[in-house]
Write a structure and sequence with these properties.
Distance between the termini: 32 Å
Oligomer: single chain
Structural class: mainly alpha
Helix content: over 70%
Number of strands: 2
Shape: globular
Radius of gyration: 22 Å
Order of helices and strands: HHHHHHHHEEHHHHHHHHHHH
Length: 438
């Protein structure tokens, strides 16, 4: 397929999306369709179209171009002139803040990249997001009778049951048709996928399930699709242990049940997709965030949830960057999470004298950097790039000590996002220099 034709198809795909939204808006006017149903109709149509992308294009780059174009269009449709009365009302007519439209496009691009041509790793997550998520929302809104509370509203037990059952069927069909997984493992994996997906959907907020659901399922499947049944049973045991641990610890740090469940999901995903030594410092980020919020509360609406979103998005970003550059980014990702812990430490002692804040954050940074170096030794040599990371680590720690300690009040709002972005700067620049040098 020629370059010109693929570009034409990418632009035509955006036109199809806009046409779908216009058609839904017209149907809504004619048949008095609720805003929630309008959103889910667009969601289903977009997801089904996304399933065709691996066969629609012969190269990868047009898919990423299409995702970029879609993100631009989604941003434009958020403008008041489109979101209130135009076709953007099909997505933004609900009375709650959501980034689901942007995250859906981002999730498709991320899943396409991470799946690396393996059909099941792309189709199963996107099909689950497309069908099960919509079924849960529509079932809950029409037939929901028993509800549980999350930070930005309520979810129904009926909707979660619908999600579980549909995901179970999708997972079984995909595993049977698109993989060589043994029959007993098909059942076990399908149950785990359905359970994990249901928890993600049930505890989602602001539309983040549109990203975390497919990407989380993808990395879980990639890591464990060929695991023995004993390993899968062990994972279930670790998940139950995480539930007990977080539900006991959460109240001591003022963490809500919803946030505790989100931490459990994040912990389970970390434990299940990477070696234990690579989970230690990312998990410490959650602890440092909780300590910082307890000692020096930030003014965010959902601070415990914001740090999960920030860290998860950064983690997937590093994973995607490593795939694109064909260079392992694990060591630089580790420096980022070390810096994030140091930044939270500086903010935590925001009411103490400046010298104390700097001293405490510096000592913690040095200790974490030492821990980081020890943990990296447990990874294969292929994961560890040659070269001393001491200088880069010192710059990261110094920058985050200054950022977190100099003016802690700057981080009273959007704390997780600000500190994560700051912690990214030095490792990202260092990684880029290293890639270009190689």
């Amino acid at each position: 397929m020629s370059v010109a034709l693929q570009i034409a198809i990418a632009f035509a795909s955006v036109a199809v999306l806009l046409g779908l939204m216009a058609s839904v808006k017209r149907l809504a006017s004619a048949y008095d369709i609720s805003t929630e149903v309008q959103r889910k109709l667009v969601h289903i149509g977009t997801g089904l179209y996304a399933l065709t992308l691996p066969w629609l294009f012969t190269d990868d780059w047009p898919v990423f171009m299409l995702v970029g174009l879609t993100l631009i269009v989604m941003c434009i449709l958020r403008m008041p002139s489109f979101s209130k009365g135009g076709i953007g009302a099909t997505l933004h007519g609900v009375n709650r803040q959501s980034y689901g439209d942007l995250l859906l496009a981002l999730a498709v691009g991320t899943a396409f990249l991470l799946s690396d041509g393996h059909a099941i790793l792309y189709i199963l997550p996107i099909a689950t997001l497309t069908l099960a998520d919509a079924a849960a929302a529509l079932t809950g809104s029409h037939y929901g009778r028993k509800f549980f509370t999350v930070e930005d509203g309520q979810k129904s037990i009926e909707g979660s049951v619908a999600f579980f059952m549909i995901t179970l069927v999708i997972a079984m069909v995909c595993l049977l048709l698109l993989s060589d997984v043994s029959r007993p493992n098909v059942i076990l994996l399908a149950v785990m996928v359905a359970s994990f997906g249901t928890l993600v959907e049930a505890d989602s907020w602001r539309g983040f399930d549109n990203f975390f659901l497919p990407t989380g399922l993808l990395v879980f499947l990639e890591s464990h699709m060929n695991s023995q049944w004993q390993e899968l049973v062990a994972l279930i045991g670790m998940f139950l242990f995480a539930i007990v641990l977080f539900m006991r610890v959460a109240p001591k740090f003022g963490i809500t049940n919803h946030a505790a469940r989100v931490y459990i999901i994040s912990t389970f995903l970390l434990i299940s997709v990477t070696a234990p030594q690579n989970t230690v410092i990312p998990l410490l980020v959650f602890i440092m965030h909780a300590i910082a919020h307890r000692r020096n509360p930030c003014k965010a609406a959902y601070p415990a949830l914001d740090i999960v979103a920030a860290l998860a998005l950064a983690s997937f970003g590093w994973l995607a960057l490593g795939l694109v550059t064909e260079a392992n980014a694990l060591m630089y990702y580790g420096l980022m999470v070390v810096g994030l812990c140091v930044g939270f430490a500086g903010v935590a002692w925001g009411q103490r004298p400046f010298w104390l804040r700097v001293g405490a954050a510096t000592l913690l940074g040095l200790g974490l950097f030492g821990l980081y170096q020890v943990l990296m030794l447990f990874n294969p040599v292929s994961v560890r790039w040659p070269g001393d990371m001491t200088v880069t680590g010192a710059i990261v720690i110094g920058a985050m000590v200054i950022a977190g300690s100099l003016k802690p009040a700057v981080f009273d709002t959007h704390r997780a996002a600000k500190l994560t972005l700051l912690a990214l700067v030095v490792p990202l620049c260092s990684f880029g220099i290293k890639v270009m040098a190689v």
